[in-house]
Specification:
By secondary structure, the chain is mainly alpha-helical. It contains 22 helices and eight strands. It has a two-stranded antiparallel sheet. It has a two-stranded antiparallel ribbon with strand order 3-4. Strands 5-6 form a two-stranded antiparallel ribbon.
Length: 465
């Protein structure tokens, strides 16, 4: 078997594709099956038994540690988020022959898979410089960071090609090398708009991950990253009393990255709040690589500042313990009580017929604040609760209104079903007459309260013409 030398920063999957091309094979599956025990290369995750790959290639790629550190994007996750015990478990699994390490895949992705993942994307400038320097282009590990679509070396967007041919589609897994343009010969289209805020964010994150991959330090061993991020947030002024002000952090995150980018990464939860801000809680461990990268970019902007902060925080000791939130009902502001009381009274003045239930829905914050801190004022200010007086009369009135509306609907459906040249083919039934009305499914249970509709349906079905 021909064993070519591996290039600097070349990925394992790209090396397998280039080796298959040199042997004039149509697919990389034979090499992957022989060297790794799998038939399909995977990006940003272990591609099989790396110990077997090191032995089959005769030491060209180096040891398992050399392959992971220099030729897979796993190293960025190892240096940023993995403590020593997790790294040892990882290397045991890689040397044991696991074909696909699902745990590491989830660690790289964070909470579930992201929508931005282009395993076949490439940088045109890198391909051009590789051709000038080596005579051929090859796949770089800097292009395989999950959730990133930018080249950290040239600070441009990655591309899949022109986007119109088969070779530039995500589902295409053909054997090919990067190109200066599309594989079909047309001009390649960048994945991200040029000079956009989204491209700038992708470039910054890709640069951080590349610097973490090339670093010799393991930051999760030196300090607690979560505690360091919380301390950095306090230093930047994201505090509200003794606690972190998550609301202002939410707003600053959205202003810096934009809703479109955060949504594409799956970083916005219900309520349009970035999910990775919750990673700053004391109970969370910093295991999501992409989330940690975004926190570093938000708090420090440059990787050198992050490294200096890790060194300073590791030497200063653990995070200082702060007093928690005081128990509810023991401390409150008299000014807030007056504002809440005034808010409730103003609403009652504008809506004198309102009930307690409606007021709790409309002035929830003010009413709940009074309920928690001044129960006497709450009972004195709030209106009485709605009573179920005249329930039977109100039901009869509502049923009469429903009966009239349903009768109009039935007559409209009958005209519709009997219109057109093919009217004799349209079958009339209770369901076809009621179809489209909200009370169609509950008609039989309410049949006794809907006499007009019941009589109309009966007469139509007896005499359909």
């Amino acid at each position: 078997m021909t064993i070519p030398s591996i290039m600097e920063s070349e990925s394992v999957a790209g090396y397998a594709k280039r080796s298959a091309l040199l042997r004039l094979e149509r697919t990389a599956a034979p090499f992957m099956r022989e060297a790794l025990g799998v038939s399909r290369p995977r990006a940003s995750a272990p591609t099989g038994n790396l110990a077997k790959l090191a032995s089959v290639t005769g030491g060209v790629l180096g040891s398992v540690i050399d392959i992971v550190e220099k030729h897979t994007p796993i190293a960025a996750s190892m240096h940023l988020t993995m403590p020593l015990n997790r790294r040892q478990e990882l290397f045991e699994r890689l040397q044991g022959g696991d074909c696909f390490d699902r745990e590491l895949r989830y660690a790289a992705l964070g909470k579930g898979p992201h929508r931005i993942h282009f395993p076949a994307a490439y940088c045109q400038i890198c391909a051009r410089s590789d051709e000038e320097r080596c005579g051929f282009p090859y796949w770089h590990i800097e292009w395989e960071y999950t959730g990133v679509a930018a080249c950290p070396i040239h600070r441009v967007s990655l591309t899949l090609g022109c986007g119109r041919c088969r070779e530039s589609q995500l589902f295409c897994s053909g054997l090919r090398l990067p190109s200066t343009e599309c594989f079909c010969g047309n001009h390649a289209k960048p994945l991200l708009p040029v000079d956009s805020r989204e491209l700038e964010a992708h470039v910054r994150i890709a640069t951080l991950l590349m610097q973490a991959q090339k670093s010799k330090r393991f930051y999760a061993d030196e300090c607690d990253l979560g505690a360091m991020f919380r301390q950095r947030a306090r230093d930047l002024g994201f505090t509200r009393g003794p606690l972190l002000d998550r609301v202002s952090m939410f707003e600053h995150f959205r202003d810096r990255y934009g809703d479109e980018l955060l949504k594409s990464l799956g970083f916005i939860e219900s309520g349009r709040k970035p999910t990775f801000v919750h990673e700053l809680s004391a109970a969370r461990k910093q295991t999501g690589l992409l989330r940690v990268a975004y926190l570093i970019d938000f708090f420090y902007e440059h990787f050198n500042e992050f490294e200096a902060s890790v060194t300073a925080f590791a030497s200063s000791g653990a995070e200082p313990k702060l007093c928690g939130r005081p128990p509810r009902g023991r401390t409150f502001s008299g000014q807030k009580l007056a504002l809440a009381t005034g808010r409730v009274k103003d609403y009652l003045r504008e809506n004198p017929e309102t009930t307690r239930t409606e007021l709790l829905a409309k002035c929830r914050h003010a009413a709940c604040y009074l309920m928690l801190h001044d129960r006497e004022t709450y009972e004195a200010v709030m209106p009485p609760t709605r009573r179920r007086i005249g329930y039977g009369a109100s039901r009869a009135q509502r049923m009469a209104q429903l009966d009239d509306a349903l009768l109009k609907h039935i007559q409209m459906r009958r005209e519709l079903l009997r219109s057109g040249p093919m009217h004799e083919w349209r079958r009339l039934s209770v369901w076809t007459l009621l179809m489209g009305h909200p009370s169609a499914r509950s008609f039989y249970s309410l049949k006794q309260d809907l006499p007009k509709s019941s009589a109309a349906i009966k007469s139509i079905l007896i005499d359909p013409v």
